[in-house]
Amino acid sequence: MLLLFCSFWLSRYVSQSPLGLCFFFTVVFVILAFCWIYIRKFQSRQESEVVSTITAICALAIALITSALLPVDIFLVSFMKYPNGTYKEWAANNETRSQMEDTVLYGYYTLYSIILFCVFLWIPFVYFYYEERDDNNENKCSQVKNALKYTIGFAIVCVVLLLIGAFVPLEPLPGQNSTQWEKVQYLFEELGSSHGLPALSFSISSLTLIGMLAVITYTAYGMSVLPLNLIKGTRSVLYERLENTEDIEDVEHQIEKLKSKCKDGRPLSSRDRNNLQELEGRLQVLQRRGRHLEIAERNCCTKVGRALRPLKIILGVFFILVALLFTIALFISNLDKALHSAGISSGFIVFGTNLTNPLNELLLALQPVFPLDYILITVITMYFVLTSMAGIRHMGIWFFWIRLYKIRPQRTRPQALLFLCMILLLIVLHTSYMIYSLAPQYVMYGSQKYVVQTPVPSSGPTLGNSTASTARTCDAEAPQDQCTVTRSYLFLHKFWFFSTIYYFGNWAFIVAFLIGLVVSCCRGKKSVIEGEVEADDSDMSDDEYVH
């Protein structure tokens, strides 16, 4: 259904550029394949659930598809004009441009509505449905009833956000002489004239705000830990096995020493019993660790990984350079807003480009060749997703200081997968604003230019001034009828106070990245079986790993 809708609104423009439609569906296919492979990689084989798996794949795919529409939106507004700043013949009519903009807007309406449905209804219902499942799995009606009961709370929050966004006035209300009914009537007229855009924008911006916290927590750390782990590599399997064998012998010696105290029939003290229990538990973990290390030593993937060590180092260096480029571009963008914006009450909007942003300039240079900027934006989005996954993978899912779930290959519980996909969904929502912060002019106007008439003194015998037409790059000071703003920008910047919070969130992201970079540099090499063996695992989990 989603693909059919996307093909409908993109077909409105396929006559102008069929390459865009073909490339879009290629990206959609890659996204679906990526989501399926990723979820299947991390899901537990012992606790796999069909409903939660399908939900996780669909939720993650919808978020990525939404982000994939951003370069299409930018291309459409840029495709309406020639490089000299004049409109193309087919876009010279205001009605034609309005239809094109409305088509894109309805596409965002559909996708963002599906995201709201996933976050507030679908994912919570599946999560609580699985939580309420008993061991016998007999009482399905009770499961559905309890899941619906908890999901209603999320639905109420969604309705409240929509109502707040719908009726919070963006323009001043009628004067004090107006009656209460006239003020209420004004609010409903505003809601009708905007086609419900503020309501949906407020809800999405609220979710994006939560996504900002996830980006600061997980993505900032993942941007440092992922490349540095590739550069540093893993510890030697032979050395780890030798070290593990020595630890096993040491623990067995301590256990024998404690047991020798009760050979004459005397009971152990409570302190010794506790120590013995801890040592036996540690011995089980070390024995499981030894089995995993033995499997890893024989595994062909480990041998291939050692052979590809130079490629991993090159990839790690590339990733860390990209992370530094993003951080520098984000710093320049925030510095530009701090020095030249209209202030906090405007959401730190910048009138014109005052500081050269390298990423913004690169996107503007690639934009006329459509697939190149689409590829770059897709790579940027996937880079944020991959680094976010790396951050979640290493940190786990936390609620303040409480660790809720661990994310491990083939060991992740269905509830953790749902949490993971909701976090990634919120992170991908925030990447739209992150990309705007990295390249504000590109995301807002694309490569549009507008014509400005400038007076030129006459040098001939005839006195007076003549005018010359010059093309200027569109910015916030451009006439509204000469430059078309992307629909994505309208969704994310409808309310100035959200933009203000995002601005300070970008500073927090930069600080978190630098802290994560220092922490990642100070840490040693990770184990070749990192995350495979934990103290709270059962012996049954080894069977899952072996098979």
3D architecture notes:
The protein is 70% helix and 5% strand. Helix 7 packs across helix 11 and helix 11 packs antiparallel against helix 17. It is elongated. A hairpin with a 2-residue loop joins strand 1 and strand 2. The protein has 18 helices and 4 strands. By secondary structure, the protein is mainly alpha-helical. The strands form 2 sheets. It has a two-stranded antiparallel ribbon. Strands 3-4 form a two-stranded antiparallel ribbon.
Number of strands: 4
Mean pLDDT, as a whole number? 76
Give the strand line-up of the largest sheet.
Answer: 1-2
The residue fraction in helices comes out at: 55-70%
Strand content: under 5%
- Sheet having the most strands: 2 strands, antiparallel
The string of secondary-structure elements, in order, is HHHHHHHHHHHHHEEHHEEHHH
What multimeric state do the chains show? single chain
Principal-axes shape call: elongated
Cα radius of gyration in angstroms:
29 Å
The poorly predicted ranges are 1-17, 172-178, 180-193, 538-547
Helices, by number, come to: 18
